[in-house]
Specification:
The protein is α/β, with parallel strands linked by helices. The protein contains eleven helices and eight strands. α2 links the parallel β2 and β3. α5 packs parallel to α8 and α9 packs antiparallel against α11. The model has no long low-confidence stretch (mean pLDDT 86). The structure holds uridine-5'-diphosphate and magnesium ion.
Length: 311
């Protein structure tokens, strides 16, 4: 049975040979499975591209997609999914933070009926306190506001059954977070727990700002709460200041109560103005809903561009 392994690569020249040795070891012990290794070179600027090509020349199991520039890991992984032909597809990081020796466990769970097998990190050696705290906040926040739930500490080390990959390939959105989309798909899930090792060599490509950007954009992609908020604030303002203004108006000109009469012309004007701000905000909220709709529909740019490939 053919298993596809998808490895997004961005400047991992030292890790690629190490990774391949590990893969070979793993699959030697699994005679019932053949593997195809799809390296997706996500615009690496080091020697990674050349190393992959050299490997691919000597080994028919090694395939590659070379993207025309850096598109980001999420897109690179998607490109891999698009070209995978295995009965199951495994996505794995190249830096050996996802130990390949766990692949048999993923396969076992798949054989037992799971359609999505998710790697869960039980520790995070490479991450400091602040990174852990940020990741905690991110999951807490996104699971509160978004309508797709994300399992905390779930890694991008995953196995998907062919069925799931076919469905995954139907997604067209540009701003994507693979994990969230896979969760959205549903299917029968199981988990493999592992200790995340420190990255073997090279630097983590996700700087604080890149991560912040990813967090913000997946927040925006997964939820339109910020858009709706303006509308709700507007409705709230209309309600409070509308009724207050009405109360003052009646009190002043019809019932002549002392309380209402104590409001100066300026104060009444202020109430009227805030009421109108409420009207504007709620209109903004309404427009936002249309924008959200457009945002959902306008997705026609190609996801990635391939310069070279061997598939
Ligand atoms: N990666 C990629 N494109 C990018 C950044 C990263 O393909 O723009 C790959 C990288 O080569 C590695 C994986 O994504 O295989 C995870 O990257 P990294 O180790 O930097 O992320 P972290 O472990 O910090 O989540
Ligand atoms: Mg890493």
């Amino acid at each position: 049975m053919l298993i596809s392994i998808i490895i997004p690569i961005y400047n991992e020249e030292e890790n690629i040979p190490l990774l391949m040795t590990e893969f070979k070891k793993v699959f030697l012990a699994l005679p019932n499975y053949q593997a195809e290794f799809i390296f997706v070179d996500d615009g690496s600027t080091d020697n990674s591209g050349k190393i992959i090509k050299d490997l691919a020349e000597t080994d028919p199991a090694i395939k590659y997609l070379e993207l025309s520039r850096n598109f980001g890991k999420e897109i690179a992984t998607t490109a891999g999914f698009n070209f995978a032909t295995g009965e199951a597809v495994i996505m794995i990081d190249a830096d050996l933070q996802h130990p390949p020796r766990l692949i048999p466990e993923f396969l076992k769970k798949w054989e037992a009926g799971a359609e999505v097998v998710i790697g869960i990190k039980t520790s995070n050696k490479g991450h400091n306190f602040i990174q852990r705290f940020c990741s905690y906040l991110f999951y807490k926040f996104i699971n509160t506001v978004a309508n797709i739930k994300i399992v905390p500490h779930a890694a991008d080390f995953r196995l998907l059954d062919k069925k799931v990959v076919i469905e995954f390939n139907r997604f067209t959105e540009k701003t994507r977070m693979t994990r969230a989309l896979i969760n959205w798909l549903g299917f029968k899930r199981d988990f493999v727990y592992f200790d995340a090792e420190e990255r073997r060599s090279g630097k983590a490509k996700y700087s604080f700002f890149k991560l912040l950007h990813l967090a913000m954009s997946s927040f925006v992609a997964l939820s339109i709460l910020p858009l709706r908020l303006a509308g709700y604030l507007g409705l709230f303002t209309i309600f409070i200041f509308g009724s207050f203004g009405f109360y003052i108006f009646l009190g002043k000109y019809f019932f002549h109560t002392q309380f209402a009469s104590s409001f100066s012309g300026t104060a009444q004007l202020a109430i009227l103005l805030i009421f109108l701000v409420g009207v504007i905000l709620s209109c903004l909220g309404l427009i936002a809903l249309y924008i959200a709709n457009v945002h959902n529909e306008v997705t026609n740019r190609p996801l990635y561009v391939i310069r070279n490939k061997k598939i």
